[in-house]
Structures
1.
Amino acid sequence: MKLTCLIDSAARPHSAFETEPGLAFLIDSAHGSVLFDTGLTGRVLLHNLGLAGRTPEDIAAVALSHAHRDHSGGLADLLERRPDLPVYAHPDLLRERFSRREGAMRSAGLPPETARVLRRSDLRLSEQPQQVLPGVWTSGAIEDRPEPEGRSAHHYLRQGEEWVADPYRDDMALIVECAQGLVLICGCCHAGIMNTLRHVERQFGRRPAAVVGGMHLVGADAAQLRYVIGALDHMGAPMLYPNHCTGEAAYMELAFAFGERVGPFPAGAVLEF
């Protein structure tokens, strides 16, 4: 199994990969290629996909971690080229999301064009884990959340006439089986990294051997980081390849705690399992 970071806010040095504040991964398995999230724009997605030696015609399926635009913005351009692509996600995907910025509410979920295209696509929504390809599953809904979640104070939903904090019910991860065990690929981990890890262990009967992607620790204070590091150590310290919303301070603390078991994963980087 080969995993390529297609989109992140950082790229490999001297790389032609373009960056943007979004996230997308390409998973190449023996059974085909899966795209997990689609970044902020179709232009960057298609450009970086080409640099990875792939075209939209090579993709077997798409899975979305959640509805936020920095993870779903490139989807409409992809589906324009491949309207037959199955898209796997949580049933809450199509619900409108908002972000409060400078006192005003702005749309932060699926772009309108993406929502329109999705409604006539092969959209496969489920709260249960779904097999995307052999050895590749969605996590299903992460509902048990006793540990801290990856929340942002400015994210909202509209509920009637009220604005309510986004519960991130649509937040899911991707699980890939390889020779070394399970690889957990996270989009933003709004459900919380420890909640996500424990959900995977319950659903799949094993702890992940590696964790890749956004861990949403960018706003975590020192006490929360110490707790997460202790919990990860108790679980056997999987290999960690954080990016996106993990945050530089959290990355440094993880690297200090776990040494060579932690590595960066910017756009253009490749992991082989």
2.
Amino acid sequence: MSDPGDFRAPHLRGADFLGVFAVLRRHGAFLMVQNRRVVGGRETLTWDLPGGQLEPGELLGEALARELREETGLEILGRPDFLFYQEGEKVLGGRRAYAWRSFFFAVHEVRGRLAAAGEVLDVRWVPGDELLQDPAIPYHTSFREWLAHGGTSFHCRWVE
């Protein structure tokens, strides 16, 4: 079990990761959550899509609803639509340290009061053009590629 004081996402601690992420779009902006991450050996603040790791025995839709509720206070209404899949690998010292697989879903309707919760530091709606201009964290490349060109399957390689 990881150290409870370790604020990094499970896939950034060195274990393989299976995750889901919610893509909520309103008036050309996307709902993003602010997290602390370690990139290049340094702690940094990032804006990520709400989502996270599946728990044992959990289905994708169940994990998506739980993660969105835990991070933003919002409850999914209706059925999310599959958008794309990302498979990635983190390479340290020339060797694969771990792999991740993430599923991204469009969430069309929600209810509740939007507020940062859990490990999330803040929430905000970020204009799509701002997301394309922002320096990419390595695991953001697939989302940025999807925004720019569409597609359903992406591979990401994060080398440190």
3.
Amino acid sequence: MARPPRSITAEERALWARVIATVTPMARERPLPIPVPTPLSPADPVPLAKAAVKGRVPPPRPPAPREPIRPPGQTLDGGWDKRLSRGLVSPDSSVDLHGHTLASAHAMLDRGLASAIARGDRLLLLVTGKPPRPESERPHARGAIRAAVGDWIAASRHADRIAAVRGAHPRHGGHGALYIVLRRARDPVARKS
């Protein structure tokens, strides 16, 4: 059952009057005028309604993507993968990152890739050290270089020359090393013929 509203006492009315006396009203924003449409004169062109299209209208097509850049690791054929997994391919050169800081290891990897590409190497052995244990928390106490190598390779200025990155065979370092398979340099003279 609802109670009837109570009336305000004289004390409450006096208190409310004092509160109202201390308040200054905020400046009100003037509402924007509503534009009134002007009537068309007989000389004005009459806007035409859009013609109704029958059937389904397909959505606009997105622009065609440029030639996709394959990330390293997706471009080897089965023969390469078999030979690498069995340790049948010997690396043309190697880069050892043991004992380096993250900054010096990154610089050394960049120099090693540049040298291997300049020599025309096909397989670079990158010795990084063992990866961090799965239960270790970031930042890793061990394996910081190994954890960063994937990002370094993907963002490298030589990324377009890297065909694949694979784990090394135990005879070449096992879990503490990686194979970096480099693409062959394209000969511009051979392509023209």
